[in-house]
């Protein structure tokens, strides 16, 4: 899988969080995920299907970062991850994937998005079960870490 | 959402586990998931997109049940959930959704499947972020519990 296919997700996440939550994430170095455990506390994930390929994308946040984004977006900071936080993570997942869909569509890679599923649970771990490798993109911020994982079957 | 749309997933899971793993699950009573926490240790989830609707499906297993299915399918019981177990859960997710896709296709509801994502983490919790309600279908067995959650946008 070409890194060209993760950059639209990366730029879309930076833009969504800057616009919606006045939050600046610092991107780290993307890598091929190879058994290394990438842990998080709340993740949004979504399936993608197009004529050329299909795959899945996830965005994982540390709890502290998710709560910080919540506070910046809605003005209130819940004590812990609740339904409002998972709704927000689902919305962010939709917006980031929608932005990446537009950018990839411009390059001739069309896909449709399924609906997101949000996982909560301290230190959970995701495995994208594609034929292709999973690209892992870490982000850091003062409030905590985030990462995106993207995997497509045939890219 | 009509229960007609969860029955194909139910029957497909029973068939896949009986055929592949000689495992008999006892279905409980389906319900609309409404904030009740349905916890599990390993879950496979997948996105679905069709001309009439889109949505997501998940299958969640207790760790003990997942390890028992692994032993019955491959003859070896890992000490804990590892990559082979998550591969197996991803495969079961594909097979169950593929079976349901065929059954729903016969009723005129066509959809394509994305690729599965498998979550591990003690007592994690899933939220399907659809416009529609989430149908929850519990299963029991001597080795542990499982449940399916299905949500579609417009059914």
Automatic annotation (TrEMBL), chains A, B:
Membrane-spanning intervals of the chain: none
Organism superkingdom: Bacteria
Entry keyword annotation includes Glycosyltransferase: no
Gene3D superfamilies in alphabetical order: CheC-like
Keyword Lyase: no
Keywords: Chemotaxis
Species of origin: Pseudoalteromonas qingdaonensis
Protein name, UniProt field: Chemotaxis protein CheX
Domain Chemotaxis phosphatase CheX-like: start-end pairs: 42-139
């Amino acid at each position: 899988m070409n890194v060209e296919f993760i950059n639209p997700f990366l730029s879309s996440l930076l833009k969504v969080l800057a616009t919606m939550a006045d939050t600046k994430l610092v991107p780290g170095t993307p890598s091929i995920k190879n058994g290394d455990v990438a842990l998080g506390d709340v993740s949004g994930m979504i399936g993608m299907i197009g004529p050329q390929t299909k795959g899945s994308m996830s965005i994982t946040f540390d709890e502290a970062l998710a709560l910080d984004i919540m506070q910046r977006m809605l003005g209130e900071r819940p004590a812990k991850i609740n339904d409002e936080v998972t709704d927000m993570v689902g919305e962010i997942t939709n917006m980031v994937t929608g932005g990446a869909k537009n950018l990839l569509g411009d390059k001739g890679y069309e896909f449709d998005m399924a609906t997101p599923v949000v996982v909560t649970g301290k230190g959970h771990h995701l495995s994208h079960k594609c034929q292709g490798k999973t690209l892992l993109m870490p982000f850091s911020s003062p409030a905590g870490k985030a990462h995106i994982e993207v995997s497509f079957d045939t890219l």
